[in-house]
Amino acid sequence: MIRSNLVLRLVALNPHLYEKDCEAVVDAILDRIAGALVAGDRVEIRGFGSFTVKEQLARQGRNPRNGVPVAVPAKTVLAFKAGKEMRDRLNLEARATTP
């Protein structure tokens, strides 16, 4: 699901709200999550999962085309870990589709 689909789904579930209001709510939530991650905070949504920021150290990599060693600089990456409820829901659906 992409952001615009989320907004349309919120509009469908809340017919008393305008689409622009639902879009503002989605934007506010996503901006707050992004702001917290930029500040280095951990964001946890119970039943869904948690977002954390991790530091990757500089390392020596290889160019896949020619095998020449390349220096890969240190960087900050986003990590997501699904919550227990989400994992259980996903595994329940996987078990239901397995013959």
Description:
The structure is a single chain. This protein has 99 residues and is of the alpha+beta class. The chain folds into 2 domains: 1-41; 42-99, Irregular (HU Protein, Chain A). Helices cover 45% and strands 27% of the residues. The protein contains 3 helices and 5 strands. It has helices at residues 3-13, 19-38, 84-97, and strands spanning 43-45, 49-56, 59-62, 69-72, 75-82. It has a 3-stranded antiparallel sheet. Strands 3-4 form a two-stranded antiparallel sheet. The longest helix is centred in the N-terminal third of the chain and has 20 residues, at 19-38. The protein starts with a helix and ends with a helix. The relative contact order is 0.11.
Outline of this structure?
By secondary structure, the protein is α+β, with helices and mostly antiparallel strands.
Rg for CA atoms: 20 Å
Share of helix among residues? 40-55%
The CATH architecture term of the largest domain is Irregular
Give the termini separation: 27 Å
What assembly state would you assign to the polypeptide chains in this entry? single chain
Portion in strands: 25-35%
